[in-house]
Amino acid sequence: MKLVDRYLEEQNKQHRAVFDTDYIFLNHSMQKLTRQGVVYILKKYVTIANKQNPTLVPLSISVHGLRHSRAVHWLQAGIDLIYIRDLLGHVSVQTSEVYIRIDNDLKNKALRKVSAETYPEESEYRWQKDHELLEWLKSFSS
Q: Can you give the three-state secondary structure of 27-68, one letter per residue?
């Protein structure tokens, strides 16, 4: 909220009577920021960041990927799928269910609840200590 407040102050938008729109984020033409505008801004800064550190910031970062990651983080934080649906603007909760299928940590926690002795804690996973395997898996993301 502090960042939004600061943005509003910088844009002098706290007095809405001056503006003929309720949009907070506007493009260079003072029109609402479109999906294409968001994609343009993201690509611009991903390119800049990638030049500084290509291994940390791959060029393949997308708006959809960020949205997808945020939804998974909300799910991991315990936010109900109904609210995630609403936050993402999905019409149906079935569209949001894809995030449940993706989150292996939630699946493992559910399995541990059923049978704690069968499924080890995450810290016991051998593959997490296999640095060669982790580097090999990272190679697929580029």
A: CCCCCECCHHHHHHHHHHHHHHHHHHCCCCCCCCCCHHHHHH
In angstroms, what CA-CA distances link 55 with 42, 58, 85, 132, 133? 17, 6, 32, 16, 17
Q: Please, which pLDDT band fits residue 17 given cuts at 50, 70 and 90?
A: very low
- Condensed to tens digits (0 to 9), the pLDDT of residues 44-76 reads 999 999 999 998 888 999 998 898 888 888 888
Instruction: Please list the alpha-helical segments (H only) found in 55-103.
Output: 63-76, 81-88, 93-96, 98-102
The CA distance from 130 to 138, in Å, is 13
Block residue for tokens 């009577």? 17
CA 94 to chain centre: 19
Instruction: Share the mean pLDDT of the chain.
Output: 79
Long-range contacts of 7-13 (CB under 8 A, 24+ apart): none
